[in-house]
Design a protein that fits this description.
heterodimer; A: mainly alpha; 8 helices; B: alpha/beta; FAD/NAD(P)-binding domain; six-stranded antiparallel β-sheet
């Protein structure tokens, strides 16, 4: 199945596994056997978000990615951990984001992308506060305490542009939440999400090493299946 | 304080494909050449190694190899009366940064333009009459023909070890190739890449409905290859991490993989990285440049680099902005139609049809940047436009480039974007979907143009480039036509769901479309219709040469890299053979 190049790479990983049979994903304490659904426990440290903000995100990412036969829930897959770490780092601080003014609100014109003066960490934190305020005013509870059907309705309305928030572009906030969730669910597990490669198993994405010079022909019209492997499996 | 450096024979601004080719040609001719590159240097073996290079979040989503908008971005308005807003994150197009430029993170599609693309206005006038060309469609001839460029296209293909199948060798149509292409002097250097299952489904269906499919020419080597510069390329691994990534197998032709070994051994060549050029030093009275000014982005120090020849190879935005900031040539005014710098900014119109097959396994994660099956039956003027309400067209292809899951997980229309149903549909279709892409022409319009933004500034406080751009009625009619043809192929492929995805509304800079931006410093016959002459020499400064797709008067229905490279070889040829002997305008008025 693997050509020579892939074999050399996988050989290296194999040797590593031999040397450390109890190899764990960095920071996640999840074994590679995949037998047990990973948990987002209180043991996960928060680097940027407050516990309340993490609870907000747990509720939202579990609505976006509910637990079912296909995968554990978003938070169980580490998506909140992923978002916290992204927001704590260069991305959250506005790396690769042009932040010069003047800032002209999007006015619903999505063709330009978000025009907020805030870098992602502050943008997400403001959005959380704004949506919690909205939820308190309309349902008397913060978002994290909404019943699941109510939360789904809230998110659908946010997505459809039916909710306006006073200090933030509500649709841009929704887009950022969904984008960060999908990044955390589908990215390489080295970033803290996609624990046990749950999303890759769900769709049948084999991950690394991705050397298919022979397989492209051999598996024409047939499913190529392999135990998915992460960057961390080759270090 | 500005530090003035020792003068050199030639200074090159931007070390992507066109800058690297010119650096090689001029230093080979014995000139002392200094290339200034805004971004960092990268060593492929160090920067693009397994396993880290297979990181979709880092390279594709966070765009590590791309230009940093914090240093410089562009602004956009759709209409002349609108207020522009800055592109705060790059999305629809991805300018490169660092040695290799966009040539590092490209896919490798290496198409030649059609002969008629190079003389568009004359061609359409001859076939349909001048009256058929709309007044505000400001298309023009290149003043360089396909025949002029053929040896230079061939040279670039040899440099890159392009994998492909010729369709027309010296006028003789070749089975399996593109019968619509201009006559070639020979076959491609490498055999075509191995087609994917989805490529084969496309090929069979297209053949069945009477079209002429052929494998896309790709600068992804199908077998190990040594180019005429002595650089060795490895064989493509079909890893599905080509566009937006570097290539660990050294199979993708890039300025680094094809030219760096030769440049390293050339005594006259040197490069300075993290050097952000802010202007060409222009002697307006003498009608010549005296050098360039740049800022070292690490130290903040400003330098003047005097040079006898100034080459701008800083892509569409960099080239146009430098001409405007330096006061070379008359800025274009879209209201009066006067002036030339910034004129005929064009893009690529790319409608797609998403296909879903309930009974096929397509392994979408196996792919290569240029792994495609293509029909050219509806490109350019390969079909009769007499009864159609538009000009132009595009190739239609099925490309197996990648199945990277953060960004690639299409679902059929009507699927929610999250929740249980979304999960089910994503799991069901991820391995069973493919898109048919149309690579559409974009013909120049009077109002689509570039100028300096009156409000927004880069990190050094200089005006950003402002893009005034929107799709024209011609673009929309052409896109609808192509979308219909692509859907027809999809149906012939027996797809379970055929989902055309028309682009509606104003041009959107958020979702990726294409990095095939063109124009702004266009070539032509006279100083009143162009910024550079047929040798890419500025009409207003005979020792300034401008390279890349910024010189295309309009965009063709192809990926533009080969045409940008071929015109660079053409320019270098004239520069070395004519200009060095007699430094003067190469075209006299």
């Amino acid at each position: 199945m693997l050509d020579r190049r892939g074999f050399m790479v996988s050989g290296g990983a194999f040797a590593l596994a031999q040397a450390d049979a109890a190899a764990v994903d960095s920071g996640t304490n999840i074994k590679h056997d995949g037998a047990e659904a990973p948990k987002n426990t209180a043991a996960d440290p928060l680097y940027a978000l407050t516990p309340g903000e993490a609870e907000f995100l747990t509720a939202v990412v579990d609505a976006f990615i509910p637990a079912d036969d296909l995968s554990p829930s978003g938070s169980e897959c580490g998506v909140v951990v992923f978002i916290d770490r992204q927001l704590a780092g260069a991305y959250g601080a506005g790396a690769r984001l042009y932040q010069e003014g003047p800032f002209q609100p999007g006015n619903g014109q999505s063709q330009f992308g978000p025009q907020s003066p805030l870098p992602p960490l502050q943008f997400i934190q403001l959005g959380i506060a704004e949506l919690d305020t909205w939820s308190m005013a309309n349902s008397n509870v913060p978002v994290r305490q909404l019943a699941k059907p109510d939360l789904n309705t809230l998110l659908q309305n946010l997505e459809a542009g039916k909710i306006a928030l006073p200090r933030i572009d509500a649709r841009a906030f929704f887009s950022a939440l969904l984008q960060l969730t999908m990044e955390g669910f589908f990215s390489d597990p080295i970033y803290g999400g996609n624990r046990d490669k749950a999303s890759w198993r769900m769709i049948g994405y084999p991950g690394l090493p991705a050397t298919y010079s022979k397989a492209i022909k051999q598996y024409r019209g047939r499913r190529y299946q392999a135990e998915p492997r992460s960057i961390a499996d080759f270090l | 304080m500005v530090q003035v450096l020792k003068s050199t024979d030639a200074v090159i601004v931007g070390l992507g494909w066109t800058g690297a080719i010119m650096a090689r040609e001029l230093s080979r001719a014995g000139l002392k050449v200094i290339a200034l590159e805004r971004g960092p240097d990268r060593d492929a073996a160090e920067s693009f190694a397994l396993p880290q290079i297979r990181d979709e979040l880092r390279y594709s989503v966070r765009q590590e190899l791309m230009q940093d908008p914090k240093v410089e971005t562009v602004t956009l308005r759709h209409r002349l009366d609108d207020e522009a807003r800055p592109v705060r994150r790059f999305g629809s197009f991805l300018p490169g940064d660092g040695v290799g430029g966009m040539g590092t993170h490209w896919n490798g599609n290496t198409f030649r333009f059609l002969p008629s693309d190079h003389r568009l206005r004359s061609h359409l006038t001859e076939r349909y009459g001048a009256a058929r060309i709309p007044d505000d469609m400001t298309i023009q001839d290149w003043d360089v023909t396909y025949e002029d460029l053929e040896p230079h296209y061939s040279r670039f293909e040899a440099l890159c070890g392009v994998s492909g199948k010729a369709g027309n060798i010296a006028g003789k149509i070749q089975p399996g190739g593109n019968p619509f292409e201009g006559p070639r002097s020979g076959e491609y250097p490498n055999r075509p890449l191995t087609p994917s299952h989805a490529n084969e489904l496309f090929r069979h269906a297209a053949t069945e409905i009477g079209l002429h499919p052929f494998p896309a020419p790709a600068s992804n080597a199908s077998a190990p290859y040594t180019n005429p510069e002595g650089a060795s390329l490895g064989a493509c691994q079909y890893c599905g991490h080509c566009d937006r990534f570097g290539c660990e197998a050294n199979a993708k032709a890039t300025p680094m993989s094809t030219l760096a070994p030769a440049l390293r051994q050339t005594a006259g060549f040197s490069k300075v990285t993290n050097a952000y050029v802010t202007r060409v030093l222009y002697d307006a009275k003498g009608k010549r440049a005296t050098g360039v000014r740049y800022v070292d982005l690490r130290s903040g120090e400003t330098y003047d680099q005097p040079a006898d020849i100034v080459v701008l190879s800083a892509w569409v935005f960099g080239n146009t902005r430098l001409m405007l900031q330096s006061g070379i040539g008359e800025p274009y005014d879209p209201r009066s139609g006067k002036g030339v710098v910034g004129k005929n900014y064009c893009y690529q119109i790319q409608p797609t049809v998403q296909l879903f097959f309930k009974d096929e396994e397509l392994n979408p994660f196996m792919g290569a940047g240029g792994l495609g099956m293509v029909v050219d039956d509806f490109n350019g003027d390969n079909f009769d436009h007499a009864k159609l309400g538009f000009f132009g067209g595009g190739y239609i292809s099925l490309n197996s480039t990648n199945g990277r899951p953060i960004s690639f997980r299409p679902t059929p229309p009507g699927t929610p974007a999250w929740g249980t149903k979304w999960k089910q549909e994503t799991a069901q279709w991820y391995r069973r979907t493919a898109s048919v892409l149309c690579e559409g022409t974009n013909y120049a319009s009077r109002t689509n143009a570039l100028d300096l933004d009156p409000t927004y500034r880069d990190m050094l406080g200089q005006p950003l480039l402002r893009m005034t751009y929107n799709f024209t009625p011609n673009d929309r009619a052409m896109a609808d036509f192509l979308l219909g043809k692509a859907a027809e192929i999809g149906r012939a492929m027996n797809a379970t769901v055929v989902a055309p995805q028309p682009r509606k509304g104003d041009f959107n800079v958020v979702s990726y479309q294409s990095s095939h931006n063109t124009g702004g410093t266009i070539m032509g016959r006279t100083p009143s219709d162009s910024v550079v002459n047929r040798y890419l020499q500025s009409w207003d400064a005979h020792n300034v040469f401008v390279l890349g797709s910024s010189v295309f008067p309009q965009n063709a229905g192809y990926n533009p890299t080969a045409a940008a490279a071929a015109t660079t070889y053409w320019c270098a040829d004239a520069l070395v053979k004519k200009y060095l002997k007699d430094p003067a305008p190469l075209v006299t008025q």
